[in-house]
Amino acid sequence: MRKLSAVIVLMFLLSGCKSDERILERLGMVQTSSYDLSEDQRLKVTSSIPVVNPESVSRRELLVVEADSIKEARLQFSRKTELFLVSGQLRNVLFGLNLTKAGLGNYLDTLMRDPSVALGVRVSIVDGDAGALLSKDYKQHADTGQYVDHLLEKEGGRNSIPQITLYEFSRDYNDDGIDPIAPIIKETEDHVVIEGIACFEQDRYRMKIPAADGMIFALLRGSLNQGEVALNLGEDGGRKRIVMFSSLGSQHKLKVIRSENSRFKVKISASIQGSVLEYTGSLRLQNKADRQELEKEISAKLSSEGNQMIRNLQQHHVDSLGIGQYVRNSLSYREWKSTDWNKVYPSVEIEFHPKVIIKDYGKYN
Amino acid sequence: MGRDQKTTPSLQHILQQFDQCADLSRRNFPEIRVDIVYFPHLVSSKLLTDEILEPFARPQGDKIEQLLEQSQFVFQADVKKVVVGILGGSVAIFHMDQVYMLDAYGPETRSLVQSETETIITGPHDSFVESASTNLSLIRRRIKSSHLKVIRCSVGEISKTDVYILYIKGIANLEYVEELQKRIQRIEIDAINEGAMLSQFIEDNPNSVFPQFLTTERPDAAESKLEGGKIITIIDNSPTAISAPASFFEFFSSPDDYYQRWALGTALRLLRYSALLITIIFTAMYVSITTYHYEMIPEALLRTLAESRTRVPFPPVYEALLMETMIELLREAGARLPTKIGQTIGIVGGIVIGQAAVQAGLTSNILIIAVASSAIASFVIPSYMMSASIRLVRFGLIILAGIWGNMGLSMGVALLIIHLSSLTSLGSSYLSPVAPMKGTDWKDVFIRAPFALLKTRPSQTRTPNTIRQKMRK
Questions:
Q1: How far apart, in Å, are the Cα atoms of B196 and each of B126, B165, B228?
Q2: Across the interface, do B310 and A54 touch by the CB < 8 Å criterion?
Q3: Which residues of B touch A7 (CB under 8 A)?
Q4: pLDDT, tens digit, for every residue of B410-436?
Q5: What superfamily does domain A222-365 belong to in CATH?
Q6: What 3-state DSSP class applies to A280?
């Protein structure tokens, strides 16, 4: 009897829990948010919310405000919409380039602090105005936010750009010995294009690796089990020699050597396996000797490009590859603390030694 | 004279006892001074003719005494026993102040037909009927062993229903047999009409929603239970046999699992456990997610789900309770109606609920899918008793999910597990072989392993003879 009355009392209490309810159709679920620095140094926030009412023509609702902080922007949004704004369905945050140059630290902190924002939210940088990119309607896509999200997800899966979520970005930001990276996208006439990889020093944008070199960056950064790379091996008798290396798998190893004068030398080796899908040179790939020659050629090409990229990163003082972490792991805590990695890093000798093995060379020859 | 009547039964006395019993039949054979009294509808007419009418019809003078010496005629001096005997289908033969009884029980019974509640695809299709003797014969036919023991008790102060406790000596644990017998003998009620009803009188926790004894209409199931060391109770006038002790997981197995190949049997078992999960939490999960946990919805589903909810005027809890009640109404209506009208119910229900409710904006179509699939899943559970219990539990979980979301749902499931683990069946754990843990039993509980691996009897029966199969490959 007491149990029964408890149940009945609970049924009545049910109507009292209204404030905790998040009934689906009454929510404005922000799916994509973009943050820019406006001319008067305020934060311009643009949020895209799916419109679920089947009678409505538009598929998404855009909210744009200028505010001093992310959360203040949300309060302002709230005054504009009949929906209860929530950020639990947030999939993608876009940062405008001018904001990333000023530093992302504070905004990251806000996003990380809010428990309803998932750690799996994708972080990406927009070359230009992020709000403008998000506001634009691309004819072939009903929802720009979703389009960008799916684009990044697909490309990330193929390793041409890294998959960077809030978790990874803030981890690399807060950890020492590594600097964060994020994919960088750009708006064109009728598409959104992946431009490459943005490299940060701390929370500030420093340099960009073009999308074409994304694979080489991935090879330098870690082991892979999928990927494709196209290499230009120069000309041979007036003919361009292009090789397309696909179904790529790579075993990544990084070795830290300390020389006597306590300078660091880092050797990155990658053992790469893959199949040749396209080859326009004159070598006959069915011959083992020719194949080995091509392997060597590819290795050399990868090595020169990789080493060049490393120099470039070092010049910009960005340790996007996380070399510092490997060095840190080879040192004692005291030694690491006494090392000013940011100063040491540009002069560290880093070598890239790829070793390429051609698994197969296509259907027929 | 008065004192005599109490001890030695006389014809007058018996007839007086059965005063105003119009269905009592009395015949006399004046030549041999014999009177017989019996209920014609309880007595097999063939036996009556062969044993009494024919031999007695030919006047034999003194030979009647000799005839009555034959072993089938039992001398009876106790009035009460004569009355009980007549009620039990015996013919009372009065001759010269002496009474002999002839057991000629053989009333009309339903013929053996296929079970309606526990149908299977392959395997024996006979099922128990309302006559205990037929049911006993169905089991005896299958177990030709003198170790199959039968204890007879009587239940019901007025009905005096026969209850038979069957077990295999050497396999069944006698402590369970004694306990069961004690519980049956303790029952004091005017009548018990059904096996499932009897089981409620002897259960450990009569107030629980869950049945603690397995009931079956299938003789092959009963037989396999006996061979596993369980005890079967058969009650006269009911096609339902009770198997004890039972575990929760037993309700999810069907004889079909053993008749089909093991891979298929295993797949079916797993299917049933997933059905259990679906039927318990699917609708509740819909409620909790649409009310509280929008974060859990995958992106691809978000729009569809939100769109289908936009027109619904109620919060998801009321929406779900409404639809679940509707489905239960349909099910109950279908169960009580004759088959021909039952079809109409199906069509009306299908159109009204499936189509119109969504179009009218009363419910979302995703909920219809959730409710329908949990209803279908509940019918996958082979035992009707268990399936009905679980359907009832579901309502509680929906309400909890509506109050506290996933928190409430997990609390509900936790309470359910706590309750299940507190249950016992004939003193043994209801959650055996999970609690107490007995890993070797799992291959006959969660999957149906190949027969080569099913070498032991279930541990729950605490059988003295654990080995069931000695065959080597």
A1: 20, 15, 21
A2: yes
A3: 399
A4: 999 999 999 999 999 999 999 989 989
A5: Nutrient germinant receptor protein C, domain 3 (3.30.300.210)
A6: coil
Residue whose entry in the numeric block shows the structure tokens 């033969």: B93
| The pLDDT of residue B192 is above 50 | yes
**Is pLDDT at B45 greater than 90 in this prediction?**
no
Cβ–Cβ of B317/A14 closer than 8 Å? Answer: yes
On whether any CB of chain A is under 8 Å from the CB of B255, the answer is no
Cβ contact (<8 Å) for B305 and A31? no
Q: Which residues of B touch A18 (CB under 8 A)?
A: none
User: Which residue of chain B comes nearest to A116, CA vs CA?
Assistant: B295
Question: What distance in Å separates residue A127's CA from the closest CA in chain B?
Answer: 26
Q: How far is the C-alpha of B5 from the C-alpha of A100, rounded, in Å?
A: 114
Nearest-Cα residue of chain B relative to residue A50: B303
Contacts of B290 in chain A (CB under 8 A): 23-24
Task: Give the global pTM.
Answer: 0.85
What backbone phi and psi angles, to 5 degrees, belong to A35?
Answer: -130, 130
Cα B70 to Cα A103, A293, B64, B111, B207, distances in angstroms: 112, 111, 10, 32, 53
Q: Compute chain A's Rg from CA coordinates.
A: 25
The Cα of B380 is separated from the nearest Cα of chain A by a number of Å equal to 30
Token pair recorded at residue B234? 């058969």
Which of A46, A26, A48 has the alpha carbon at shortest distance from A34?
A: A46
Residues on A contacting B at a C-beta cutoff of 8 Å: 7, 10-11, 13-14, 17, 20-25, 27, 29, 31, 50, 52-54, 86, 88-89, 91, 116, 118, 146, 149
Is the bond into B433 cis (omega within 30 degrees of 0)?
A: yes
- Cβ-Cβ contacts under 8 Å, B307 against chain A: 52-54
Tokens of B453: 């691996």
How far from each other are the two terminal CA atoms of chain A, in whole angstroms?
A: 84
3-state secondary structure of B89: coil
ipTM of the complex: 0.81
Q: In whole angstroms, give the CA distance from residue B80 to residue A204.
A: 104
- Tell me if A23 sits within 8 A of B291, measured CB to CB: yes
Write down the pLDDT at residue A16.
63
> Could you check whether the bond before residue B436 is cis, i.e. omega within 30 degrees of 0?
yes
Per domain, the residue ranges of chain A are: 23-210, 222-365
B207 at interface of A, judged by CB pairs closer than 8 A: no
Lowest mean pLDDT among A190-204, B108-122, B384-398: B108-122
Confidence of residue A18 (pLDDT cuts 50, 70, 90): low
CA–chain centroid gap for B48, Å, is 34
Q: What is the pLDDT of residue B3?
A: 42
Nearest CB to A89 within list B295, B307, B315: B295
Q: Which pLDDT band holds residue B273 (cuts at 50, 70, 90)?
A: very high
A–B CB contacts, 8 A cutoff, strictly below? 66
* Contact call for A21 and B315, based on CB within 8 A: yes
Which chain B residues touch A146 with a CB distance below 8 Å? 299
* Cβ contact A54–B307 (<8 Å): yes
The torsion of the CA quartet B402, B408, B409, B414, rounded to 10 degrees, works out to -150
Residues whose CB is less than 8 angstroms from the CB of residue B442 and which lie 6 or more positions away in sequence, other chains included: B433
The stretches of chain A forming alpha helices (DSSP H) are: 2-13, 70-78, 97-102, 105-113, 130-135, 144-157, 166-174, 214-221, 288-315, 323-330, 333-338, 341-344
What is the arithmetic mean of pLDDT over B89-107?
Answer: 87
Average pLDDT for B465-469? 89
